[in-house]
Design a protein that fits this description.
By secondary structure, this protein is α/β, with parallel strands linked by helices. The chain is 33% helix and 22% strand. The strands form two sheets. It has a nine-stranded mixed sheet with strand order 2-1-3-4-11-10-9-6-7, with helices on both faces. The protein has a two-stranded antiparallel ribbon with strand order 5-8. The chain is globular. The two termini are 14 Å apart. Residues 81-189 form the Glutamine amidotransferase domain.
């Protein structure tokens, strides 16, 4: 199941297509729930081999008093689901917004110290990351796309850092055996990220005058770390 929260219909549809592309799944194999559009339906874990949580315009570190009723509803429903995920160690991969959401529940510090402007950055695997099956096929250092206003500053000792970056110390972690999260976007290649930049040019992730330069750089990039999603599906989807 893919859970998303993007209020922009074009961005939401393209995000779903990106997950389909990188996962190798068909629409019939990847159930999609837009949490910003509908409440989370009742779920049976036995019916879902894993959960994917995509990015968002929401920031979990914002004070509750500035969060919209929609964001508070989404966070409440995700909290119920993800506490169950953590309790039974059900396969989960959270991306960007997903890393902050699951991170907060395990006691990580989530704040704005390590925000990154929308861009391609170099990600480096830790020794634990090199050995982890979700990172199979990745180079020890690889290019990936980021763009986030908040990030994890510190993880509890119970979590394992799998990847780091110069501007953000926690780019990927594992909790338990089957719960994962990335700050970078493994679902996106260069052309997809260029379209995302165009859609979000006024969303505060970068100075608007930089949009055309960032779009051109992303469109010509060959960065692709979709193996993370493909590995997740192969490991847990059969």
């Amino acid at each position: 199941m893919l859970l998303t929260t993007r209020v922009n219909d074009v961005a939401a549809a393209e995000e779903y297509e990106s997950f389909l592309q990188m996962s190798g799944l068909t629409p019939g194999e990847l159930r999609w729930v837009r949490l910003e559009a509908e409440p989370l339906p009742p779920l049976e874990f036995a019916d879902h081999s894993g959960f994917l949580l995509g990015g968002s315009q929401f920031n979990v570190s914002d004070p509750d008093e500035v969060k919209s009723p929609l964001q508070l509803r989404v966070e409440t429903e995700l909290g119920v689901l993800l506490r169950r995920v953590l309790e039974v160690d059900h396969p989960f991969l959270g991306i960007c917004y997903g890393i902050g959401t699951i991170g907060r529940l395990i006691g990580a510090t989530v704040d704005r110290r390590y925000s990154e402007i929308t861009n391609e950055v170099t990600i480096s695997l830790t020794p634990e990351g090199v050995a982890d099956p979700l990172c199979a096929g990745l180079e020890s250092s690889f290019g990936a796309f980021v763009g986030h206003k908040e990030a994890i500053g510190e993880l509890p000792d119970s979590a394992t850092v799998l990847a780091t970056g110069e501007g953000c110390p926690v780019q990927m972690f594992r909790y338990g055996a089957n719960v994962y999260a990335t700050q970078f976007h493994p679902e996106m290649d260069g052309p997809a990220f260029a379209r995302r930049i165009d859609l979000y040019r006024d969303a505060g992730y970068f100075p608007p005058p930089e949009a055309e330069r960032l779009i051109a750089a992303a469109a010509s990039s060959t960065a692709n770390c979709g193996a993370v999603i493909g590995n997740f599906v192969r490991r847990y989807g059969g």
